Design the sequence.
């Protein structure tokens, strides 16, 4: 009699692996990598190394400004936003331009849970669009609410405070440090839960609402706008605040966030359609690979956000020492 072996899938979590007491969940599939410490250390070192070599001037100005200028057809920084339609176009262009800024790095890790999928390209595309829509919905909700708040409160918000205190930190920088530090901490916890080291904080909620994890990840992406120091976004932020129009504030902030997601989502869909079958076979052959991949993405992004937006900012104000490449100063 021929024995039929059922092929494991990523859709249904496997039973807990021997040696772990964690219940399988969205972020932990029940198969912890054998070398969990190695995965965590290498990922953290990668996130740290990225903070050392990252040049904000190159990414924000050389890449971001040039992309925005090309999309708008004029020099974005030197041109006022003339009217609502111009503001909507500015929001989309600067959102796309800000794809690879330090504020937006964690978007790549947000797509880590979507890796792998069905064998058919059409089925892979369909399977990827559903969680992507959840990610977008979470991001749209947070960015829209923040846009309404900005339009109602106006220019009295901390994001407009560029006056340095005795420590050299302005209200805008302090807000960025707090917001991105918390986002980084969330990413780090999710990475450790993917390894089975800590419990998945969303496990109970996910059992009742399966789409909750992607909504949560989307909410983190939308929260990038809270305290975002990208110069072109500050220009849009001031325009929304001075308009006093909540609908306009929500619209431009939503478009800014969707612009942040657009390039990454397109790249992800292309990879899913072109290589998803091969990637799925590689992951299902050893399910612990999926855990390691997801954990590495979250831990690297979390460490980067924590170190870059907290310690490196303090170093830039000469409050502490932090290693930085010569071009990163």
Sequence:
């Amino acid at each position: 009699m021929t024995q039929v072996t059922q092929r494991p899938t990523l859709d249904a979590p496997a039973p807990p692996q021997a040696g772990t007491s964690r219940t399988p969940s969205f972020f932990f599939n029940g198969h912890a990598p054998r070398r969990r410490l190695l995965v965590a250390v290498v990922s953290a070192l990668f996130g740290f190394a990225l903070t050392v070599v990252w040049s904000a001037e190159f990414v924000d100005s050389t890449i971001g400004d040039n992309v925005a200028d090309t999309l708008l057809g004029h020099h974005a920084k030197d041109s006022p936003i003339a009217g609502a339609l111009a503001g909507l176009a500015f929001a989309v262009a600067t959102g796309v331009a800000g794809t690879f800024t330090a504020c937006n790095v964690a978007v790549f890790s947000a797509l880590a849970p979507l890796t792998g999928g069905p064998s058919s390209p059409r089925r892979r595309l369909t399977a990827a669009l559903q969680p992507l829509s959840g990610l977008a919905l979470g991001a749209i909700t947070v960015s829209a609410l923040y846009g309404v708040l900005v339009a109602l409160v106006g220019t009295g918000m901390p994001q407009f405070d560029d006056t340095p205190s005795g420590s050299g930190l302005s209200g805008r920088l302090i807000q960025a440090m707090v917001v991105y530090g918390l986002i980084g901490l969330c990413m780090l916890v999710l990475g450790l839960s993917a390894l089975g080291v800590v419990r998945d904080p969303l496990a109970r909620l996910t059992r009742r609402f399966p789409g909750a994890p992607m909504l949560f990840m989307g909410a983190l992406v939308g929260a990038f706008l809270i305290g975002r120091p990208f110069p072109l976004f500050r220009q849009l932020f001031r325009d929304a605040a001075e308009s006093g129009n909540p609908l306009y504030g929500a619209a431009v902030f939503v478009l800014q966030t969707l612009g942040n997601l657009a390039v990454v989502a397109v790249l992800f869909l292309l990879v899913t359609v072109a290589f998803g079958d091969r990637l799925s076979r590689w992951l299902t052959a050893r399910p612990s690979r999926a855990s390691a991949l997801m954990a590495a993405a979250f831990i690297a992004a979390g460490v980067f956000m924590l170190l870059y937006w907290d310690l490196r900012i303090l170093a830039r104000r000469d409050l502490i020492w932090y290693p930085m490449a010569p071009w990163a100063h």
